[in-house]
Design a protein that fits this description.
Oligomer: single chain
Structural class: mainly alpha
Number of helices: 17
CATH class: Mainly Alpha
Shape: globular
CATH architecture: Up-down Bundle
Helix content: over 70%
Number of domains: 1
CATH superfamily: MFS general substrate transporter like domains
Strand content: under 5%
Distance between the termini: 26 Å
Number of strands: 0
Largest sheet: none
Length: 372
């Protein structure tokens, strides 16, 4: 859980400090869109390889490998001399994180009592959002006080420290000596129509979650003239909303097993959050962040909990990786579209239109009855 918090700091803090990076490297919102897209491209591209690797060498080893790569890349960003180097390093931060998430979900669920696994996934996601809130708010303050390079050095160093803790305290993987990859089982998971539709619901949720967490601080600094500290505080509200909803929806999933309804309702709520953000005020931004964050926490927890339950133990990370892989590309696709819309039409129109084009992905989840 502690490693998850620091992992999240390195996930979210770049958006919070981008205004300072932009001043030093002569960038605008287009640069933020490219950097966010690069990160999510790395996260999405290596989800399935991460799940396969976890099946082969175990979730602990895979998580340690991914955390090491992500943390080292985050630390190296502090010595980057050009924005193109930052983009490449953000890609490798994403690659490392792709190897962590699904194996870690399995590790956390393994140590909770039977029929409380959804709650365990909710707590694990809550750790992500706690770290995200710290990354958005505290790292904005640190960057303002110390400098953005120093703040990145700190977060990357903390990530490497968690590697030491993981090696010391997480029990060793138990891998069957005669275990070999079952291609039939792998194909069954990769071609699962239910997983694909679940991914579409996640795709929509990642769309509104990414836009709010990646652009809200920059929007408040540039359009509402807030200081970095105040903008970071408002931007962190989205993560706090997710922090509240994640364990709540984990318990709901354990009790009612109606993932399709929960995912659709939460998706609609997140879209409402984007429409509220189109009202140009700080209060609207705060409400939008809370609403969208609460909704995304529910979607992610329900989807990951449901996906984990459909595969045999060795392949559970692969099932989670499959639904996580496709939805991560929302973070690659939507930020450049959003930043281009801002340059053309302004922030209010960009928030409003993003809700409209995300809705079809949210509605896709109703095309089939999702398994409980």
């Amino acid at each position: 859980m502690f490693a998850r918090v620091i992992y999240a700091v390195n996930w979210y803090n770049f958006a919070a400090i981008f205004a300072m990076v932009a001043r030093d490297m002569n960038q605008n919102i287009t640069g933020l869109g490219i950097a966010v897209g690069s990160f999510y491209f790395g996260v999405g591209l290596f989800q399935v390889p991460g799940g396969l690797l976890a099946a082969k060498i175990g979730p602990k080893r895979t998580s340690v490998l991914g955390t090491t790569l992500a943390s080292a890349a985050a630390m190296l960003m502090c010595v980057a001399t050009s924005f193109s180097q930052l983009i490449v390093l953000r890609f490798f931060v994403g690659v490392g994180m792709a190897f962590v998430f699904a194996p870690a979900v399995i590790l956390v669920a393994r140590y909770f009592r039977e029929r409380a696994e959804g709650f365990s996934v909710g707590l694990f996601n809550a750790a992500l959002y706690l770290g995200g809130a710290l990354g958005v708010f505290v790292w904005a303050v640190l960057a303002d006080a110390w400098g953005w390079r120093e703040s990145l050095a700190l977060s990357g160093g903390l990530g490497l420290f968690t590697v030491v803790l993981m090696l010391r305290f997480i029990p060793q993987d138990s891998i069957r000596e005669n275990f070999a990859m079952d291609l039939t089982e792998i194909r069954k998971i990769l071609a699962n129509r239910w997983l694909f539709l679940l991914s579409m619901g996640l795709f929509g949720a990642n769309g509104f979650s990414t836009l709010v967490t990646a652009f809200m601080v920059f929007y408040l600094e540039r359009s509402e003239s807030l200081s970095a500290t105040l903008a970071g505080g408002v931007g962190a509200l989205a993560l706090l909303g997710s922090l509240i909803s994640s364990p709540l929806f984990g318990m709901l999933h354990d009790r009612i097993h109606q993932p399709s309804r929960l995912v659709f309702l939460c998706g609609l709520l997140g879209i409402v959050g984007l429409e509220v953000a189109s009202i140009a005020s700080v209060w609207a931004a705060a409400i939008a962040g809370l609403v969208a964050g609460f909704a995304s926490g529910g979607v992610f927890t329900v989807c990951f909990s449901a996906a984990r339950e459909i595969a045999h133990a060795e392949y559970a990370p692969l099932a989670v990786s499959c639904i996580n892989s496709l939805q991560q590309f929302a973070g690659f696709i939507f930020p450049p579209i959003f930043s281009r819309t801002v340059l053309t039409l302004g922030f209010s129109s960009a928030w409003f239109l993003s809700g409209l084009y995300i809705f079809p992905f949210t509605a896709t989840v109703l095309l089939t009855k999702l398994k409980g």
